[in-house]
From TrEMBL, chain A:
EC number(s) stated in the UniProt entry for this protein: 1.2.7.8
Keywords: 4Fe-4S, Electron transport, Iron, Iron-sulfur, Metal-binding, Oxidoreductase, Pyruvate, Transport
Name of the featured protein: Indolepyruvate oxidoreductase subunit IorA
Highest taxon listed in the record's lineage: Bacteria
Catalytic activity: indole-3-pyruvate + 2 oxidized [2Fe-2S]-[ferredoxin] + CoA = (indol-3-yl)acetyl-CoA + 2 reduced [2Fe-2S]-[ferredoxin] + CO2 + H(+)
Annotated source species: Desulfocicer vacuolatum DSM 3385
UniProt keyword Metal-binding present: yes
From TrEMBL, chain B:
PANTHER family (alphabetical): INDOLEPYRUVATE OXIDOREDUCTASE SUBUNIT IORB
Name under which the protein is recorded: Indolepyruvate ferredoxin oxidoreductase beta subunit
Gene Ontology MF annotations: oxidoreductase activity, acting on the aldehyde or oxo group of donors
Source organism of this protein record: Desulfocicer vacuolatum DSM 3385
Superkingdom of the organism of origin: Bacteria
UniProt keyword Transferase, yes or no: no
One Pfam family linked to the record: POR
Coiled coil: none
Keywords: Oxidoreductase, Pyruvate
Domain called Pyruvate/ketoisovalerate oxidoreductase catalytic: residue spans: 13-188
Length: 620, 199
């Protein structure tokens, strides 16, 4: 077994079965990238896993997790101003956090070149929405390359880096969830083994860099002037490709990314198919390629998931060029929703050109497709031993039925599910103190409690907390401190260097309570006391992430698995453990008795105090 | 082999479906067959449903499999096995699953019934599918139950063109030290009866 980290810095070319998120790291190495930053978020955190698999001494670039996406973008931008090829990566909604800085990048001359990797999430697999960031790239006038597979992720990063350096600009590499996580064999190039020198070449002569008044307009003029050269890059590099159909019927499809692969799958096995123009550079769109394609066809379908961005642009293009082609696009709301999987593309084609998908009409495959699946859904759960479960179990006892609880982003968001139902409204990272403040206005009847995780506290929570102080809002904030960025795979956060409690004290917050969440009665007391206080009160509900802790313990020699057991003779079938505490380790038998699933139970014993009969004990 | 040959894997976050999928993918690759794969894990680390897919053959483009397009469904847990049979399995396909139950939330809350193995049998009969139930109860470490599945796959040659040597080689590529030894031992015990490959 060769370690992946050693492989990623191999000098000779090689082939390996990798996922998109790993392939891009080899591309960073080969391209001579010097600085990489990020804030963790799905679908991109495995990029960091691959980076961290290269030992720090051997890694040919600097890497950091920044406090949030905006700071990560700023650090990468600053490094690139010094002449270092830099990269920042984050998830789809991370772009919203980075936006204030991101929108400026289109105006800037960036000598080192900056590649921004954005992991969009069509289908909202692990995000609070499925926003189409192509809208934002366009607003910021930043060039975008979109790969369809791990192989293309590797190739397109290299091209994005080349373009970014050549034009001294920022370039986006837009990935989507199933491109990040797809695996295939990729042929990698060579790596010189030389680490490019660290540059400190910042000079205002490369600017202007102060976008104030007239200068901002001058900067915009300069950036617009680069657009035609950027557009030409797509042609020079062969980024847009035509995949000829089986038979010419003068029908064509313009598409991009993984949607193109879905289309190719759906057409496979049929005896006819349209020509396909696959756009590799999706902004700015190479008008020459598109116009030529439109002229060669009678009907063209613009097949794109999420928004109708290309559709509108191509329709305008056809109008401007006086091309008499019938353009087909989105014809109902459903076409704006969800990932364009092969199943979804089949539906779209059935509507538009049913002839091409006749070969899918074997009815036996639809045998069960319309009947409900007789299995209850399996929502994500807090892990066995999770400190958040203990926290919610206690907080629920302190909060009144009519009080309002506000959720935030993190593992603790799952508290909204039964049996806890803690956290009734959610916007985005760090929004809970602000939302709670608004809910507390004109409100003397209903207490307002906000939850926030520790990584989020630093990421975007602090401004909202300071606002409650400034404006004397009346809320109770519960900081769910587990010592890590757990949801995305246990990345470090600022809490490693900064104590949340000291920080809150430093802000002058007078009412701060703190305890381990396994101390149920103490925690209930703290929350009740905090809620009785006028103004901002904070409860720090601490417990280390047990998934992280258990994994570390398992790696140690002499590790002995622990479990709890239930004394069936003592059990009164109250079901507090399985129904109210809700640890997934409990098994509910048809006869009403409760068992313990040893595959899941970690023997933390946090459940013992919830049993009214004290029937739960550690199995020694 | 039908071309393409599609494998749909399903289970619960924490069951080791990642290693299962990677091992099978590497084994297919070792056998010289082109393959692509993709995981959908969402928030699976928190005990949610997790799905992985492998698509083998020259003419596959997306790593995603269409509804009822899987030649082989692998279930690491009986609820997810039944779900997989209902959503992914092809008529005349193969379902291979572990007799492990991790109750979903609604079952634990007393709002839904647990899946019974007879339900799996029924759906397989209706779909003319072959079913293999793998006993994993004797495996203490749940993270190694995936080896029982791979051993069964090897013993019954459920993935065309891939034999025991390929699975062994794949594991050796992915693991090392005592972890490799333990997993290999389990693979061998469940893979008994698998025809030895060349060399």
């Amino acid at each position: 077994m060769e370690k992946i980290g050693d492989m990623l810095i191999r000098k000779k070319p090689f082939q390996e079965m990798v996922m998109g998120n790993t392939a891009v790291v080899r591309a960073m190495v080969e391209a001579g990238t010097r600085v990489v930053t990020s804030y963790p978020g799905s679908p991109t955190p495995e990029i960091a896993t691959a980076i961290n698999s290269i030992s720090k001494e051997k890694r040919p670039f600097y890497f950091e997790f920044s406090v949030n996406e905006k700071v990560a973008t700023e650090v990468a931008f600053g490094a690139a101003l010094n002449g270092n090829l830099s990269t920042v990566f984050f998830k789809s909604v991370g772009l919203n956090v980075a936006l204030d800085s991101f929108v400026q990048l289109g105006l800037m001359n960036i000598p080192g070149g900056l590649v921004i990797i954005v992991g969009d999430d069509p289908g909202a697999n692990s995000s609070q929405n499925e926003q189409d960031n192509r809208n934002i790239f366009r607003m910021s006038r930043i060039a975008v390359l979109e790969p369809a597979s791990p192989r293309e992720v590797y190739q397109y990063y290299l091209k994005a880096a080349k373009l970014a350096k050549q034009e001294s600009i920022a370039v986006v590499l837009r990935l989507t969830t199933h491109v990040c996580h797809a695996r295939e064999t990729v042929s990698f190039g060579s790596f010189s083994g030389l680490i490019s020198p660290h540059r400190v070449d910042f000079s205002t002569e490369n600017g202007p860099y102060i976008p104030i008044a007239a200068l901002a307009l001058e900067m915009k003029r300069k950036s617009l002037a680069k657009m035609s050269r950027i557009m030409a890059f797509a042609g020079e590099q062969g980024l847009n490709t035509v995949i000829p159909g089986h038979k010419t019927r003068n029908l064509g499809v313009i598409t991009q990314g993984l949607t193109c692969r879905s289309l190719q799958d759906v057409l496979q096995g049929g005896d006819a198919g349209p020509d396909i123009l696959k756009l590799g550079m999706i902004y700015p769109m190479d008008t020459n390629d598109v116009v030529e394609f439109l002229k060669a066809h009678n009907q063209v379908l613009i097949l794109e998931e999420l928004d109708d961005i290309h559709e509108k642009e191509i329709k305008a293009l056809a109008f401007d060029h006086g091309i008499s082609v019938k353009l087909l696009g989105k014809n109902n709301d459903e076409n704006f929703i969800g990932e364009y999987t092969p199943d979804k593309v089949l539906k779209v084609l059935k509507d538009v050109w049913p002839d091409f998908v006749k070969h899918h009409e074997s009815s036996e495959q639809d045998l069960y497709s319309d009947s409900p699946v007789p299995v209850p859904p399996r929502p994500a759960q807090m892990c066995p031993g999770c400190g958040h479960r203990s926290a919610f179990h206690a907080v629920k006892k302190a909060v009144g039925d009519n009080d309002i609880t506000v959720a935030d982003i993190g593992c603790h968001t799952l508290g909204f599910l039964p049996p806890y139902e803690m956290g009734q409204v959610l916007l985005c990272m760090g929004a809970s103190p602000g939302i709670a403040s608004g809910l507390s206005l004109f409100n003397i009847q209903r207490k307002v409690v906000a939850f926030i995780g520790d990584s989020t506290f630093f990421h975007a929570g602090l401004p909202g907390i300071m606002n409650t102080l400034l404006n004397h809002h009346n809320i109770t904030l519960i900081v769910m401190e587990n010592g890590t960025t757990a949801m995305t795979g246990h990345q470090d956060h600022a809490g490693r260097e900064i104590s949340i409690e000291s920080l809150l004290q430093g802000l002058g917050i007078k009412h701060i309570f703190s305890c381990d969440t396994y101390q149920q009665s103490t925690l209930i007391g703290h929350v009740k006391a905090a809620m009785a206080i006028e103004g901002l009160s904070v409860v720090i509900a601490k417990h280390p992430c047990m998934l992280k802790l258990t994994r570390a313990q398992r790696k140690k020699s002499g590790f002995v698995p622990r479990h709890v057991k239930i004394d069936d003779a003592m059990c009164s079938r109250s079901h507090d453990c399985v129904e109210l505490f809700g640890c997934p380790s409990f098994v509910r038998h048809p006869d009403g008795s409760v068992g313990v699933n040893h595959d899941l139970c970690i023997g933390d014993g946090s459940c013992r105090q919830v049993c009214p009969e004290k029937a739960i004990s550690i199995d020694s | 082999m039908t071309n393409p040959f599609n494998i749909h894997m399903t289970g619960v976050g924490g069951q080791g479906i990642g290693l299962l999928s990677q091992t099978l993918l590497r084994a297919v690759d070792c056998a010289g067959i082109r393959a692509i794969a993709v995981d959908t894990h969402g928030l699976a680390q928190r005990g949610g449903m997790v799905v992985s897919r492998i698509r083998m053959g020259e003419n596959v483009f997306s790593p995603l499999i269409m509804a009822h397009g899987a030649d082989l469904v692998l279930g690491m847990e009986i609820h997810e096995a039944l779900r997989g049979a209902h959503t992914a399995l092809k008529k005349n396909g193969i379902l291979c699953y572990l007799n492990v139950a991790w109750q979903p939330l609604a079952v634990r809350l007393g709002q839904a019934d647990s899946v019974a193995e007879t339900q799996i049998k029924t759906v397989c009969e209706e779909m003319d599918a072959r079913a293999f139930c793998v006993d994993a109860e004797t495996i203490d470490d749940p993270r190694m139950q995936n080896m029982a599945l791979i051993g069964t796959i090897a013993a019954n040659k459920l993935i065309p063109g891939v034999d025991m040597n390929h699975y062994r080689q794949a594991l050796k590529d992915l693991l090392a030290g005592p972890v490799l030894d333990k997993n290999l031992a389990l693979l061998e015990s469940y893979g008994k009866g698998a025809a030895p490959g060349p060399g």
